[in-house]
Structure to design on (309 residues):
């Protein structure tokens, strides 16, 4: 078994002179079918496992061909297993009615497992801002605790290198973008959901993350009341007022109820109510023309009625 010293894996004499076939056999020896009931999800796993169409496709694939790529687990002190990568495969196996999951058992400590968990999940195509935020934060904290490590044949990482710069280079994001994503972890769940839904953009969301929890809840209440979200400028002003000790619920209400430039001379029509009055034969693309012609007809009707008096 390899020894680790200063974050570097030191291979034994026998390991160095093993053939590639022997190493592959060693790896296969660590792959086994483990009862799903003995596998625990990774603590605070930041990536959602959704029972959507992609999951159903994965279920059908596993029913037909089994788990092609083994999940990755590590042995816990209590004898159970902790899932590092393969949460979607585990869920798919459960939905497929299987009792076991094909896994590779690896020897990792908690921080190494966190880094591997984040790396493996970032291969997914659709990642929500909240998932990125907590994944970056977990990986950042784990990297700070590690004295140094070796990745894919690279040189040992210097201990004095800024962790955030290092993380940015590894995931292909800028230092500033990493900072912004990690700030999202300070948002209350309601605001973070709005970021995931695209209702609140990144820049105002980052500014809102500096508000205390009570003030953030005041913002949530005003969003529900006004059906509008804060602009970047409004979020900056709220953050500034909090820094000065002047951000009260009344101040949040006053800022949130300001008329935004994009709202001037505009009003919103209820689409469902409008369509209920329009024949189904009228295409959605013709809705505006139909409404305008109806209003023109109604205006002529009112004029005719006035003239008949």
């Amino acid at each position: 078994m390899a020894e680790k010293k200063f974050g570097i894996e030191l291979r034994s004499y026998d390991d160095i002179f093993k053939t590639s076939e022997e190493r592959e056999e060693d790896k296969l020896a660590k792959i086994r079918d483990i009862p799903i009931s003995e596998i625990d999800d990774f603590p605070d796993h930041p990536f959602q496992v959704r029972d959507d169409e992609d999951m159903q496709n994965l279920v059908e694939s596993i029913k037909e061909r089994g788990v092609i790529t083994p999940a990755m687990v590590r042995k816990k002190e209590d004898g159970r297993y902790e899932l590092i990568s393969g949460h979607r495969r585990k869920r798919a196996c459960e939905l497929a009615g299987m009792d076991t999951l094909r896994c590779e058992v690896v020897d990792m400590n908690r921080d190494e497992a966190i880094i591997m968990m984040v790396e493996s999940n970032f291969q997914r195509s659709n990642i929500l801002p909240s998932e990125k935020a907590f994944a970056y934060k977990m990986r950042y904290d784990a990297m700070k605790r590690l004295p140094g490590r070796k990745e894919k044949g690279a040189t040992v990482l210097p201990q004095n290198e800024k962790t955030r710069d290092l993380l940015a280079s590894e995931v292909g994001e800028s230092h500033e973008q990493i900072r912004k994503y990690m700030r999202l972890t300070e948002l209350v769940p309601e605001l973070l959901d709005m970021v995931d839904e695209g209702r609140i953009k990144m820049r105002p969301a980052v500014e809102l993350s500096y508000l205390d929890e009570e003030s953030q809840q005041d913002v949530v209440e005003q969003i529900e009341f006004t059906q509008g979200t804060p602009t970047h400028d409004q979020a900056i002003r709220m953050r500034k007022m909090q820094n000065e000790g002047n951000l009260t619920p009344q101040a949040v209400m006053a800022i949130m109820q300001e008329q935004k430039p994009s709202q001037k001379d505009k009003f919103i029509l209820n689409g469902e109510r409008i369509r209920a009055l329009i024949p189904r034969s009228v295409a959605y693309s013709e809705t505006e023309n139909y409404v305008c012609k109806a209003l023109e007809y109604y205006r002529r009707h009112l004029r005719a009625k006035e003239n008949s008096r």
User: Anything to note?
Assistant: Confidence is low (pLDDT under 50) at residues 3-11, 149-160. Strands lie at 3-5, 8-10, 31-35, 39-40, 71-75, 81-85, 100-106. The CA atoms of residues 147 and 172 lie 22 Å apart.
